[in-house]
């Protein structure tokens, strides 16, 4: 089983790990593209104004160019701890047990614009680069074939929780058992619609639950059976195809309410 997560624009600073070593990262087939993208990101950071434009940074974010200037020397931390934001708050990697970390390291990957697919426990520095950052050639052009090839090497269940922009950097193989997950909300009248603000939180909670389960589910049927037993409404998309839909209760108010509803359902 492989669970694919998007990265986040925001990242924790610092870390206790040694500086970046590309050969320590998972998905070694991406090494050549990683080296090229890394070199270009570092080179771009030498021209502060050009980097601000290419990275689409606002005035308050301009200092993030410095992160890319220090990529070879900055301390590292595991990818699941490096990323922050709604999805990662819900996943709450800091509270994982050692056994859960071991399982996450084997089954969870994050789609980085800088490093491509990285394992949950891979040590990475803080950086600034998004799927739509203005590098030439484009990041989609650089990563697409290599990322798709890396995923095609995985013949088990793949659960894709990435956003569309990051999913395009490494498209799923066109086969049974490889699924993109959409998050929808059902209101009190039973109407189902796309879930916007809480989309990332629902994905983080689902990823956390799968990590806590600690079982590498072998197939789509096994995934759906697990979801039903855990109280998640997860099933094939209404319009057919290979997508799956996670339907959650529509909850007004703070994001924490969605977390409470989903956890109480389990």
The number of helical segments is: 11
Q: Termini distance?
A: 21 Å
Rounded average pLDDT:
92
Residue share in helix = 25-40%
Which stretches of 5+ consecutive residues score pLDDT under 50? 253-257
State which percent range the strand residues make up.
Answer: 15-25%
Q: How would you sum up the global shape?
A: globular
**What structural category arises from helix and sheet content?**
alpha/beta
Number of strands: 10
Radius of gyration from the alpha-carbon trace, in angstroms: 18 Å
Largest sheet: 8 strands, mixed
Number of domains: 1
Could you give the order of the helices and strands? Answer: EHHHEHHHEEEHEHEEHHEEH
Question: Can you give a write-up of this model?
Answer:
It is built from 11 helices and 10 strands. It has one domain (2-265). Helix content is 38%, strand content 16%. The longest helix is centred in the last third of the chain and has 15 residues, at 199-213. The chain has helices at 31-44, 48-54, 65-69, 79-82, 86-91, 98-107, 139-152, 164-167, 199-213, 220-230, 255-265, and strands spanning 2-5, 77-78, 108-112, 116-119, 123-124, 158-160, 178-186, 192-194, 233-236, 244-249. By secondary structure, the protein is α/β, with parallel strands linked by helices. The strands form 2 sheets. Strands 1, 3, 4, 6, 7, 8, 9 and 10 form an 8-stranded mixed beta sheet that branches. It has a two-stranded antiparallel ribbon with strand order 2-5.
């Amino acid at each position: 089983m492989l669970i694919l997560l998007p990265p986040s624009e925001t990242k924790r600073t610092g870390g206790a790990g040694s500086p970046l070593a590309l050969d320590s990262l998972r998905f070694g087939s991406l090494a050549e593209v990683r080296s090229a993208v890394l070199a270009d990101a570092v080179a771009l950071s030498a021209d502060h104004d050009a980097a601000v434009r290419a990275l689409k940074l606002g005035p308050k974010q301009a200092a993030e160019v410095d992160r890319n200037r220090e990529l070879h020397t900055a301390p590292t931390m595991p990818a699941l701890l490096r990323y922050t934001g709604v999805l990662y708050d819900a996943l709450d990697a800091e509270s994982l047990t050692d056994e859960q970390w071991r399982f996450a390291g084997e089954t969870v990957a994050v789609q980085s614009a800088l490093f491509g697919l990285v394992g949950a426990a891979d040590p990475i520095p803080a950086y600034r680069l998004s799927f739509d950052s203005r590098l030439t050639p484009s990041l989609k052009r650089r990563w697409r074939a290599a990322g798709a090839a890396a995923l095609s090497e995985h013949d088990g269940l793949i659960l894709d929780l990435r956003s569309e922009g990051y999913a395009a950097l490494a498209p799923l193989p066109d086969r049974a058992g490889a699924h993109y997950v959409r998050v929808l909300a059902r209101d009190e009248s039973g109407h189902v619609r796309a879930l916007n603000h809480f989309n990332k939180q629902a994905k983080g909670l689902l990823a956390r639950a799968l990590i806590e389960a600690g079982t590498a589910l072998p197939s789509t049927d096994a995934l759906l059976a697990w979801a039903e037993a855990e109280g998640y409404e997860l099933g094939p998309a209404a319009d057919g195809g290979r997508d799956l839909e996670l339907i959650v209760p529509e909850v007004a108010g703070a994001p924490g309410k969605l977390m409470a509803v989903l956890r109480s359902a389990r």
